Amino acid sequence: MSEHTPDQPSASPATSPAPASSAANTAQQRQRASQLAQALRLELQKALIGQAQVIDDVLTALIAGGHVLIEGVPGLGKTLLVRALAKCFGGEFSRIQFTPDLMPSDVTGHAVYDLQSEQFKLRKGPVFTNLLLADEINRAPAKTQAALLEVMQERQVTLEGRALVVPLPFMVLATQNPIEQEGTYPLPEAELDRFMLKLRMDYPQQDEEMLMVRQVTRSSKADMLEVAPLRTLLQGKDVQALQKIASDLPVDEQVLDYAVRLARATRSWPGFAIGAGPRASIALVRGSRARALLRGGDFVIPDDIKGCALAILRHRVRLSPELDIEGLSVDQVLQQLLDQVPAPRL
Amino acid sequence: MRLTEASVAIRPRSNWEAMDLGVLLARRHAGLLMASWALVTLPIFALLCLVFWDSPGIAMFVFWWLKPAYERLPLYILSNCLFGNTPTLKQALKAYPRLLKPQLLASLTWRRLSTTRSFDMPVMQLEGLSGTARSQRLAVLGHKNTGTATWLTVVGVHLEMALSLGLATLFYLMLPQQLELDWSWQSLIAPGQNDWMWLEHLSNGLYALLLIVWEPVYVACGFCLYLNRRTALEAWDIELVFRQLQQRLKGIAYALLLGAGLLFSQLPGTAMANPELKASSTSAELTSGPHLTPDPLGPHAERLQKQALSSQAAQQSITQLLDKPPFKNPETVTRWRLRDEADANKEEFTPDPDFLESLFSGLKTLGKLWESMETLARVFSVLLWAGLLALIAWVLWRYRDWLSTFTGRFGLPQRPHKLPPSQMFGLEVTPESLPDDICREVSQLWEHEPRAALSLLYRALLSRLLHDYKLALKSAHTESEVLQLVASLQQPSLEQFSSSLTLHWQNLAYGHRLPPATAKQSLCNSWRQLFEPGVEA
């Protein structure tokens, strides 16, 4: 199910001999993990005001080991969120500003001839990091976007015929702007499918915006919130431990069935031209485990699935042309679907 | 038929006014009409009742079906009354068998269900037309009146129903209570026995009675519609005015003619001549009359002949001036236009009698061909309409899923679910499917099958929410969404119970954790307090 969960049990002390004490240990560990996740959420909420839902979803993706595509009009703090996450997370962070002339080798790295040693040396690109921010990802042409395909799915980069593993945990956070279509390249389906979640950032509420304006105008920098005062809460291995704990959360058969039914429903639903693939059901279960951990629960309930279904499904389906012309959005039709697929009972 | 003796004012009326006139006419001769109707129909009704005593429905139906036969009598009476010679009851009844003969079969079979019956009847009965002549005549007459006549029949149907219901209700009100009770018991105990047959016959009789009042009015309305149409078609009102004029002036017309002749013979003598002119004029001028020669002193005589500008020259220049702008602005416009078909025909038309004859015969055959074509066309139109309807039905059926998904988008009113669903989440949630004492059942199950016990309790909660609190639960609702809906009810105790039960249920169902033993008692107690306040644990 969670094929990216690291195998190394460095952070997981669930190897105690006695099963009873192991169960207690696991429970304790879960409790700590969920406390940690909630602390991280609080910290992020300090930096990004008024986007609690988006913060939850980003944390879901982090714990589930998926990638996130964030869409929103300019000025809503997409980049700020990623920078804040990088700040709270002690691992490496690098950022690529996607431009129309960006080449695949600018992303993955390339071989350079070294005059002194008279041989080619590999120069690793910015993808060799823990947290990768792909800013305005749709501004680069398809070949550059395709440079991310391998690393996103397999966590490795093939350079000069050698497969190089990127450091774990690895997470791509891409942003894109939905209104400017001039000079952009829409993401190919294969690329979209590799993103676990696609988040929509909306304008903040009035009181939240007032709070934000108050804080930003008080800050010393011109017009942005500072992320400097944020505490570094967790390291790379802590994230891996969180991922491990989340992947161990029990999922009842009924809940699993619900996730699969949701994903399958999109394929036969009359409003969709193209439904979601099997990656959607996988992502639904992984996302729900992460959400259960964030919630502080010990097991997955159907609400966890339903809560992240919209973000997981919205970029994997394509609206049928009639509805597109009618002006219906994918979210509306998906909401209709969620309202009609029966939730599990018994 | 003499229009001057008509008892109603003959003038063109609107259709509704004509029907009003019909009501008035029926009211004026109400006694005769109703008596004759009753004398004809009531014996027939009695006979039918006797014959079909066991099945009052059939008697009623046959009586109703024979209505066109009875209607001939009121029409006869009305048509005679209109021109003054009101028949006596005896005369009318004597005339009735003779009236029945023509076209009785047609009236009682294929014309029985015609909606314009009362309007068509005078054509058959008074004009004595049948077959093609009748249908042509009806086509002429019914040009604008068919709609009104149909409405008359529709109103009549409703009036008959309303009156018969009213009479039945009145009768029911008059029943003594004991009889009514007896009746109810009888119908309850032995619904098959026909002891109460006379009641049905009685209600049939009520219908026969109300027809006495309504049918003459119906016939009179149709008759007046017919009269009105003829008044308009044959200009009866104008004819009537001329007749009155003739009658009034008959006496003095000769005197007037004589006087006029005398007056005209005197005219030449009264011409006055100018005495001066008389003196200077010749005798020839006198015989030819003074008016024939131009008056030398008149406005048209030539004057100012010695002047530089004679009157004639002035006249000419004035005429020339008047022909020029701004008095006249002649302009020539040239444009293309289609050659007029009628003109072209006229030009080519040669008054050759043979050609005319052949043309007319050709037109006649064309007309006949057209008639046969019309039948074919009707068949095709029926086929095409049927095809269109079938196509629409097929499209609706074919895309029913699509339509049902997007009905909200089309703004179609979605019928709210009146009844709560009996099955939800794959569970039986009707109150009947649950055991009477839920708590006892739960307590029994708790030790051995805790999952079944909790499931029963949760199911009972959902059932109560659905039926007692009328919550609009859907299958797609998860447990927390149900909790949110419960929170919207603003009942703290119910909310608390629901959340604790949901917690235990989720722990068991999805987390596979047994609920603590203490939960049983607290849950049962809360359930009793909430839903069974009378029973103590």
Automatic annotation (TrEMBL), chain A:
What keywords is this UniProt entry annotated with? ATP-binding, Nucleotide-binding
SUPFAM superfamilies reported in the protein's UniProt record: P-loop containing nucleoside triphosphate hydrolases
The record's GO molecular-function terms, alphabetically, read: ATP binding; ATP hydrolysis activity
Q: CDD domains this protein is in?
A: AAA (cd00009)
TM helices/strands, residue ranges: none
What is the official name of this protein in its record?
MoxR-like ATPase
**Protein family membership:** Belongs to the MoxR family.
Q: Does the keyword Nucleotide-binding apply?
A: yes
- InterPro entries, alphabetized: AAA+_ATPase, ATPase_AAA-3, CbbQ/NirQ/NorQ/GpvN, ChlI/MoxR_AAA_lid, P-loop_NTPase
* All residue ranges annotated as the AAA+ ATPase domain in the record: 64-207
Which lineage is the organism of this entry classified under, starting from the top rank?
Bacteria, Pseudomonadati, Pseudomonadota, Gammaproteobacteria, Pseudomonadales
Chain intervals with Low complexity compositional bias: 7-30
Automatic annotation (TrEMBL), chain B:
| Keywords for this protein | Membrane, Transmembrane, Transmembrane helix
The record's InterPro entries line, in alphabetical order, gives: TgpA-like_C
- Region of interest (Disordered), residue spans: 278-297
Give the stretches traversing the membrane: 32-53, 151-175, 206-228, 249-267, 376-397
Q: Which residues form the Protein-glutamine gamma-glutamyltransferase-like C-terminal domain?
A: 457-528
Name of one Pfam family that matches:
DUF4129
**Taxonomic superkingdom:** Bacteria
Keyword ATP-binding attributed: no
The protein here is known as Protein-glutamine gamma-glutamyltransferase-like C-terminal domain-containing protein
Q: Per the UniProt entry, what species is this protein from, by scientific name?
A: Pseudomonas segetis
